[in-house]
Each structure stands twice: as C-alpha cells, then as structure tokens.
C-alpha cells in the first residue's frame, strides 16, 4: 500500500509535466488540425534555455522560465509560418514537416549547447517531507501547482476571452470563422505560440527532475503525445488526465520492470489505444484526420 | 523505350564494375548505402505507396540484424540458417506492429509505431540476450562456396543482387494488382473499400512488405558489419530514414533508393560536420515538404509540366465520346427481392438521421430516392453500403443479412456505388481507377506474388484488356492515362459510374449522379442508367433533378426528416399530399419547376428520340 502510494506520488509530478506537453499538442491540434512532432524538441529547447538563464546568467528560476517561454513561442511562430501553405491540406506532409523541424531543433541544440547534457539543481532548497509515511519532494509540489495553474489559465483563456473564443471557432470550422471576420492565420499562429510556450514550461520544469540533453525531447515528447492520445486528442481535460495516467503508468512500470519500463509503458499504451482509439474524452467528430 | 533499356544496361554494367574504381573505405560506404536503400524501399512501400505511417521501420531493421546476431552467436546457427529464420521473424514483428493500423491511421499510427520502436530499443539495450548496450559482436562471416564474403568488395555483389531483386519485386508489386489496390487505399480508403479492396488485409500487407525489406536489410547489415549495437537502431536514425524517403520521393521506389543512396553518401562526406549535416537535412526535409512534396522523383514531371505550359503545348484534343449501350440481357423473371431495409434507424448523438426507414427493392428495378436536403438519403446509402452501421434495424442484400457487413464484403457480394462528392483515386490514372474495381480477386490471392509471378502478369493482361473495354464503352478511351482531378466535372462523374460498373455489380447505388451535369450530359446519363438496368443490374439512385427521376425511375421513395413519407410510381408520389408539403411547403409547384408533367415528358421525348 505504502509502496503503491509512493509510486503514485512519484508518477503525479512527472504526469503533470506530461500533461503540460500534451496540452500544448492538443491546443495546436484542435486549432489547426496539425500534429506537431517538433513539439517535444521545442520542450527540449525550452529546458536548455531555462537552464542556461538559470545557471549561467543566474536569473531567478521564474524569470529564466519566462525567457524560455518567449524564445520557444517565437520558434513556434516560425514553424507555423513555414508550414502554413500545408494547413488544412495534406495532413501527413505536415506531420513529416514538423519531424523535419524537430531534426533541425536537435541539431541547433547540439550546436549551441554541445553534446554533453547538464543536471539542473532544484530551485527549492526545502528538504522533502513525509506525509503518512510517503516522501514528498517540495519541487514535485511546485511542478504540480504550476501545471494546475496552467490548466486553469488555459481553460480561462479559451472559454472567457475573445481571442480564445475566436480560436475555438477557427478550430471548429476555419471557413466559417473566416467568414465572420476571424483572422484564422493569426489565431493559428497564436495557438502555436501558446503551445510552444507550454512546451517550454514543461521542459523548464522537467529540467531539475531529469537530465537535460538533446535527446530529452524524445522521451518527453513521445510520452506527452501518448498522453494526449490517451486522454483524447484535442481535449484539454483529456490531456491532463492522459498525462497523469501516463506518468503513473511510467512510474509504476519503472518500479516493477526496471529497465524495461519504456517497453511496458508503450505496450500498455498501444493496447489501451487499440481498445479506445478516440481516447477517454475524445470525440470522433473533433478529429480532423 | 530503347533509350530506357540502354540506360538500364549501362546502370547494370556500372553497378558491376563500380567496385574496381573504389577504395576500401568507399566500398564500405556503398555497402551501407545499399542497405539503407533496401530499408527505404520498405518504408516507401508502407508510407508512400500504401499511406501507412510507419515509424517502426528501424525496429524491423533491428529485428533482422539482432535475429541473425542472436541465432548465430547464442544458438550456433550458421549465417544462412539464421538469416532464413530472422527474415520471417521480422515479418511476424511487422504483422504485430501493423495490428494498430486496423484501428487508427495517420498521426495516431505514427505515434503508436514510434512508441513500439522505442519499446524495441528499450528492450535491446536492457536484455541480456541482446548484449545490452554493448551489443553483440562476433557474427560469423556468411559463407558462399568459392567466394570470400569477408571482403567488402565481394560482399558488395551479394548486396547488389539482393537489392536488385528487392527493387524489382517492389516495382512489380507497385505496378500490378496488389500495388494498385494499396495506392487506391492510400488515396481514399473508403472508396477503395467500396470497390472491393479488403482494407484490413491490405493494411497488414503494407506492414508485411515494410518488415520484409527491413528484415532483409538487417540480415545484410549483420553479415557486413558482424556487430550489432542499439545505437544503430535509434529514433534519430529512423528520422534520417524518413528524410531519405521524403527527399527522394515517397511515392516512387526509385526515388526512395536515390534518396537513400544520396543521403548516405552526403552524410559520409560531411561526417566531420555531422551536426551541421543534420541541420542541413532537417532543413531540406522541411523545404521538400513545402515546395516539392513529391520529392526528387517528382521533379522531372513538374519540370515537364512547366515546360508544356510555357510552350503552350496542346495535346491532340481529347473528347468524351458517347456511351455505347450494353447488349441487353434477357429480362429477369419473377423479380426476386434484392435489397431490403427493415426499420433502419441511424442516430448521430442527438440527431436521428434515419427513423425506422423500410425499403424493398426488387431485382431489375430502377428506384429513385428523393427528399429535401438533410432528409437522410445519403445516410441511407451509407448504411446500405456498409459505411455506417445502423443503430437499429436490419439490411439484407441478395438474401443475406448484411446489417454489419463491411463495405468491401458488400462490394464482393455484388454491390457498387458512386459518391455524391466524387471519390476518385486522385493519384491513379483513369484506367487504374477502373482497374481497381475490375479486379475481383481476394487479397489472399497475393500468394502468387511470392511463388508464381507469371500468374500475376497473366491476370494483369486480362484485366487491362477488360479495362479497355469498359473505357471504350463509356467513351473514356481518350482519358485513359489522364489524372482524374484534371478532368472536367462531368467526365469525372462518368468515370465514377464506369468504375462502379467495372465491378459488374448486381446492385448499383448512384448518389446524385446528375449533380452539376449539363443537359446533354443528363441525357447521356439517362441512357447509361437504362442500359445498365437492361443488363440485369438493379439501380437505386438519389437525385434532386426531379425531371430525371420522374422519367427514369419506375418506383420512387420519398424521404423527409429521416422517414419514408411516400413510396410508389412517379405519378402516385407526385400526387401524395405529404410529398407536396414536405417538398414545397406552401409554395407553388410550377415555381419550383417541378413535376409539372411537361418537364418529365420533355426528358422522356428527347430520351426516346434516336440519336
């Protein structure tokens, strides 16, 4: 029991990070029907940028994160602009195009930061404390709190602001949205920038939990992607639930299967998604594929 | 043709003498390039030809290589025996990885296959049998009597032989029955299903092909390097492989080969600047996707097109010739019931598109289905042809209960349909569109590809002869090699009917066949439909052109709001008060240009006039 709960808590913080990655995926997907395979590498760039400004420039952690979000947001805008001719046309080509961007971002990361990775110390000094016999790291709590804030903020933006509503409209029917005067191009660009910002948030937060190197994106992204699918592609709630599910599954697999955790995680994921391809909160009708 | 065979001879001769001009290291690079080329052919077959996103190709490569390594070093098999087991093992893996393709497509499939590839990498880096991160060394040299395959020069000839056979087989698949179906599935899997292509089996076939090439490449790699380690099969290398296929041109196997060989050589040439090379090919992939989605292989065709347009080059004018009626068959006697729908209901969340619709169509009938927009006509077609599953109620076709039958099963049972918004296979020529439907063999007939290729070719010749007949009959001969999307709308509609009829159906469903046609085209359509019926094929059509329906159909079913509100002969239906209300509301009959008899008469007269 104790052990199971400990696994659960360990999975929750990583799950919060996956949820952030998945939210970015989902936001871009629901707005422009684009599956951004470069998303993971954007998160990696975010992690590097945040760590550089935190460790080298010695900005406070929060400020370093803000810089990372701005930088990746700009990268998101560039990707969206380049791939815009393919929007609402060839789905598979767009997908491959974003893989191409992923390759470019990885190469850039190696050129800028080199091949050796770096460990980022936790910005919180507080020692882990124990609740009901379960060790809880304070940084994990911070990660979960930030992720929760991001969920609430994104929800507020999409449902309560004019730009958010316009984004939803463009997602449902881009032609109708154009007809009522929404600048779909700008709306998509904004979605892409926010998505990239969320990736940077995830990357920056995961820095002190994992080792930051050019391959960080691979691990983070594919699980974030799996989380988005499991929750239901395009659903923000789904992204949160899926992220936590993958995080817990991951931490459980790591505890019981050690080295084979990735294999187990993806086998379980594949079976789950075979049983319910639309995910937990997914709607067939939302899918543009 | 002559220049082509001359180029082929030069190429073969060049491949034979190539090692004589190369240094020891260069021949090694060439050997690697050939292995990549085999991998790329497999990936091209899955992604470019069949439209199945497959990001596990590198894992297939790994299963082949590790299979040989484990079997030779741990179990003491000889190289060839190990190879003979490793390739089938890879194909079995391919079948397993392909299973998700039955349930999901596109990016879903991409992420699942990528996840499974990650799982494979995770396994080989941790398992004891695979040597963990250190990998396995000491794979024995393949033995061949009289040939020392430890020489990379001689190994090159082995590789060239396997590669040439592989490419030839790949091209053979692409250009014959199986490949045509795979391409049809890629362009439009729904329409392909409606033409009798067994989509689930075809998807699995795509993965079998991809894994077969992956396994062969893996075996060759094991024999060449004689050492395997996890980093060779990383996700990064998967993306390089993807880049090869995209840059070369995913839809052309030759393009894939060019991309693979080219990128391998360039990478080797730039190996001192590998990160910049990575940056470079990432950028090239992005540019290719945006500006040249058909890759290098597509560039000649684009240049030719551009040149033609510049030069104002016009081909001999192609024209749509009149339809030649079928020789009438003896009229069916007894008129058994062919199609029955019994209280079919279809619910889409809150919307009830069909509400207890019952319909009985007898063999040899021409049945019209009319109704205002949104009355459920196309939904009914989709339920009948297996695209939707009825929420409740049953559908029967030719005496069998087909409520849950898949579209391909219905097509094989003798049902064909056209689509309201045209679903021709965009990347196939008009002839190939017809060929897809003509080909009634089941997917299981692909065993011929493995053991008796002349049988495939003989069947192909027979099919082509019959396709020419169909095209001739429908007046489409001039457009046989055309790309359907480039043709005028009326011609595309005609192709849809020709394609549906190529399947020799007992029941033909036409969804708004006259939409967008001009007067002459509508008159041709009437002749076509009558002639089709006279061959014994039953026709059910949805149509808005009331004049056409009135003159053509013997019985008419009127739908409104998902219910059948009237059924009977044209005269009965027109007189039914429910129909007038549903169709016209309070407005005047003449205003809507409706079955004021003259309209119908007119069509009938022109139709009966000899032309």
From TrEMBL, chain A:
CC per GO annotation: plasma membrane
Species annotation:
Streptomyces fructofermentans
Keyword annotations for this protein?
A: Amino-acid transport, Cell membrane, Membrane, Transmembrane, Transmembrane helix, Transport
- Which residue positions does the secretion signal occupy? none
Transmembrane residue ranges: 6-27, 61-79, 91-116, 136-158, 189-212, 224-248, 260-281
Q: Where is it mainly found?
A: membrane
Q: How does it sit in the membrane?
A: Multi-pass membrane protein
Q: Does the keyword Ribosomal protein apply?
A: no
Where is coiled-coil annotated? none
Protein's UniProt keywords contain Transcription: no
Where is this gene product found?
Answer: Cell membrane
Q: Listed GO molecular functions?
A: transmembrane transporter activity
Q: What InterPro entries is this protein classified in?
A: ABC_transp_permease, BCAA_transport_permease
Q: Which family does it belong to?
A: Belongs to the binding-protein-dependent transport system permease family. LivHM subfamily.
Which biological process, per GO, is one annotated for this protein?
A: amino acid transport
Q: Quote the protein name from its UniProt record.
A: Branched-chain amino acid ABC transporter permease
From TrEMBL, chain B:
Start-end of Basic and acidic residues biased regions: 601-611
Which is an annotated GO molecular function term of this record? L-isoleucine transmembrane transporter activity
What Gene3D superfamilies has UniProt attached to this entry? P-loop containing nucleotide triphosphate hydrolases
Q: Membrane topology per the record?
A: Multi-pass membrane protein
| InterPro entries in the record | AAA+_ATPase, ABC_AA/LPS_Transport, ABC_transp_permease, ABC_transporter-like_ATP-bd, BCA_ABC_TP_C, LivM-like, P-loop_NTPase
One Pfam family, short name: BCA_ABC_TP_C
Biological processes per GO annotation = D-alanine transmembrane transport; L-alanine transport; L-isoleucine import across plasma membrane; L-valine import across plasma membrane
The name this protein carries in UniProt is Metal-dependent hydrolase
């Amino acid at each position: 029991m104790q052990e199971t709960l400990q696994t659960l808590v360990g999975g929750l913080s990583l799950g919060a990070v996956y949820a952030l990655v998945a939210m970015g995926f989902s936001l871009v997907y629901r707005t422009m029907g684009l599956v951004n395979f470069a998303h993971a590498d954007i998160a990696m760039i975010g992690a590097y940028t945040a760590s550089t400004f935190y460790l080298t420039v010695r900005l406070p952690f929060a400020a370093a994160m803000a810089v990372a979000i701005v930088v990746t947001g700009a990268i998101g805008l560039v990707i969206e602009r380049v791939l815009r001719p393919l929007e609402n046309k060839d789905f598979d080509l767009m997908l491959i195009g974003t893989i191409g961007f992923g390759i470019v971002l990885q190469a850039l990361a190696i050129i800028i930061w080199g091949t050796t990775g770096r460990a980022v110390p936790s910005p919180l000094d507080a020692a882990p404390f124990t609740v009901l016999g379960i060790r809880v790291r304070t940084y994990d709590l911070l990660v979960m709190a930030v992720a929760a804030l991001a969920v609430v903020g994104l929800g507020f933006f999409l449902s309560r602001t004019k730009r958010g509503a316009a984004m939803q409209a463009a997602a449902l029917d881009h032609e109708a949205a154009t007809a009522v005067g929404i600048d779909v191009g700008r709306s998509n660009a904004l979605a892409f920038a926010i998505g990239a910002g969320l990736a940077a948030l995830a990357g920056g937060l995961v820095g002190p939990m994992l080792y930051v190197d050019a391959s960080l994106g691979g691990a983070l992204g594919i699980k974030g992607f799996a989380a988005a699918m499991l929750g239901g592609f395009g659903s923000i709630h789904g992204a949160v639930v899926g992220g936590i599910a993958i995080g817990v599954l991951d931490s459980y697999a790591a505890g019981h299967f050690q080295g084979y955790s990735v294999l187990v995680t993806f086998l379980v994921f594949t079976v789950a998604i075979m049983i319910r391809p639309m995910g937990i909160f997914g709607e067939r009708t939302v899918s543009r594929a | 043709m002559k220049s082509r065979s001359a180029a082929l001879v030069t190429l073969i001769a060049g491949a034979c003498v190539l090692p004589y001009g190369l240094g020891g290291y260069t021949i090694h690079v060439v050997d690697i390039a050939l292995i990549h080329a085999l991998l790329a052919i497999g990936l091209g077959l899955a992604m470019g030809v069949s439209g199945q996103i497959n990001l596990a190709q590198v894992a297939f490569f790994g299963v082949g290589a590790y299979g040989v390594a484990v079997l030779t070093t741990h179990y003491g098999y000889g190289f060839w025996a190990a190879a003979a087991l490793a390739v089938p093992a890879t194909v079995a893996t391919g079948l397993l990885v392909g299973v998700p393709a039955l349930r999901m497509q596109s990016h879903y499939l991409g992420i699942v296959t990528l996840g499974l590839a990650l799982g494979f990498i995770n396994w080989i880096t941790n398992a004891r049998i695979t040597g963990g991160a250190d990998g396995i060394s000491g794979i024995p040299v393949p033995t061949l009597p009289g040939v020392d395959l430890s020489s990379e020069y001689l190994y090159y000839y082995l590789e060239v032989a396997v590669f040439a056979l592989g490419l030839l087989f790949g091209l053979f698949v692409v250009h014959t029955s199986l490949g045509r179906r795979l391409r049809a599935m890629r362009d439009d899997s729904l329409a392909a299903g409606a033409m009798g292509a067994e989509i689930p089996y075809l998807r699995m076939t795509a993965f079998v092909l991809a894994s077969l090439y992956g396994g062969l490449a893996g075996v060759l790699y094991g024999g060449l390097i004689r050492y395997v380690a996890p980093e060779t099969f990383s996700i990064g290398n998967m993306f390089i492989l993807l880049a090869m296929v995209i840059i070369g041109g995913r839809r052309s196997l030759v393009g894939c080969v060019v991309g693979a060989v080219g990128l391998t050589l360039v990478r080797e040439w730039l190996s001192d600047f590998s990160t910049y090379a990575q940056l470079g090919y990432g950028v090239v992939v992005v540019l290719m996707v945006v500006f040249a989605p058909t890759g290098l292989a597509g560039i000649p065709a684009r240049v030719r097109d551009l040149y033609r347009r510049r030069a104002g080059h016009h081909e001999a004018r192609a024209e749509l010739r009149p339809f030649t009626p079928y020789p009438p068959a003896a009229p069916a006697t007894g008129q058994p019931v062919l199609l029955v729908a019994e209280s079919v209901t279809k619910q889409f969340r809150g919307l009830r598109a069909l509400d207890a619709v019952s319909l009985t169509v007898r063999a040899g009938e021409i049945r019209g289905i009319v109704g205002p927009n949104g009355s459920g006509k196309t939904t009914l077609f989709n339920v009948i042809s297996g695209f939707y599953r009825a929420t409740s109620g049953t559908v029967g076709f030719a005496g069998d209960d087909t409520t849950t039958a898949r579209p391909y099963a219905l097509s094989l049972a003798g049902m064909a349909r056209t689509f309201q918004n045209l679903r021709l296979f965009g990347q196939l020529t008009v002839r190939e569109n017809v060929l897809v439907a003509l080909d009634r063999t089941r997917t299981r007939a692909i065993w011929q590809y493995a053991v008796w290729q002349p049988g495939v070719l003989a069947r192909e010749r027979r099919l082509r002869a019959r396709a020419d007949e169909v095209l001739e009959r429908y007046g489409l001969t001039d457009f046989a090699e055309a790309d359907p999307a480039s043709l005028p709308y009326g011609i595309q509609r005609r192709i849809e009917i020709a394609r549906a009829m190529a399947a020799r159906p007992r029941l033909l469903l036409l969804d708004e066949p006259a939409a967008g046609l001009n007067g002459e085209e509508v008159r041709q359509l009437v002749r076509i439909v009558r002639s089709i019926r006279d061959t014994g094929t039953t026709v059910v059509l949805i149509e808005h052109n009331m004049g056409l329906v009135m003159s053509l159909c013997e019985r008419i079913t009127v739908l409104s709001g998902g219910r059948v509100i009237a059924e009977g002969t044209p005269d009965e239906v027109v007189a039914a008060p429910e129909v007038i209300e549903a169709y016209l509301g309070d407005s005047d009959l003449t205003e809507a240009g409706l079955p004021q008899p003259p309209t119908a008469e007119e069509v009938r007269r022109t139709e009966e006039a000899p032309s």
